[in-house]
Amino acid sequence: MDWYLEALKKYAVFEGRSRRKEYWFFGLFNAIFSVVLVIADVLFGTSGGLSSPGLLSGLYTLGVFLPALAVLVRRLHDTNRSGWWVLISFLPLIGVLVLLFFSVQEGQPGENQYGSSPKAYAA
Asked: Is the confidence at residue 72, as pLDDT, over 70?
């Protein structure tokens, strides 16, 4: 949960680097909260149906869009790639697979053009 909160604290910080742990724990808790909110939308009757999000899940999605984008850009920085690689996600299937490949890679040890290794702070 600390990694999720850490990503939220850096709400729209696109500089620097993020560890794999921060990126994947943010994604995990984001998915858990989204499922819970979809269920709550159905229970409270605020669901938009199958084709559109409900009120709670829609507001949550809007609220975490920037932190999710920022943590992905910082993750790309950790692998010594520009944040502009996010745009490859517009290519159907291939783009998402490329981003998945980049996000599971080990970060560059030491310092790169985006800053020092976030693992150095954890040690």
From this structure: yes
